[in-house]
Write a structure and sequence with these properties.
Blueprint lengths: L1 H28 L68 H14 L19 E6 L5 E8 L6 H13 L13 E8 L5 E3 L5
Antiparallel strand pairs: 1-2, 1-3, 3-4
Amino acid sequence: MHCIEQGSTRRPLAARVLRVAAALVLSGCSTPMSPMRPLPPAAPVAPLPPVPQTGTNARTAAPDSFAAPSRPVPPPPANMAALSQPARLPAPGPVRNWNEVRLQAAKRLVDAHPETSYLGPVPDILLAIPVLVIELNGDGSVRRVDVLRVPTQATDTVQLAIAAVKRAAPYGDVSRLPKPWQFVETFLFNDDRKFKPRTLDR
């Protein structure tokens, strides 16, 4: 009887130990996992510096053919008022197309301004290059002058060119030519502020 009582006393103790151990195991497995923290944002990556091109495939920017280097600009001439006076030129000849109008106009521009124009070689570096659109009336007189290009320096050459155009008019009867009655002339000014019509430089 003593052995039965002793055995019956140990069994409940062992069962309690097993239940406690099982509860600890289950409580450890059922513990919820902590949520994952989001990763910090990636730092921006600086762009790599451009690799200089060398060799035959290297491309360079084309220089502005109208740009003049930075240098002292001579002052405008003192006789600008005299350029507004009409020139004494013979009557213009007949013209059959706009190429003849441009050529005759360029020659009259030079003839009307012997002291402020030139016919020699154009210097490598020009002072200024204004470009004008010259609109005519049917009889060849100047109706309107628009500036197509203003130079970056010596901007007074624009007014010199406009005055020269008006002074050398008329440029021939264009009433039978197709409209618009207009043409473009480029003025190549050197350091002395003397111009050459580009039409005569071709």
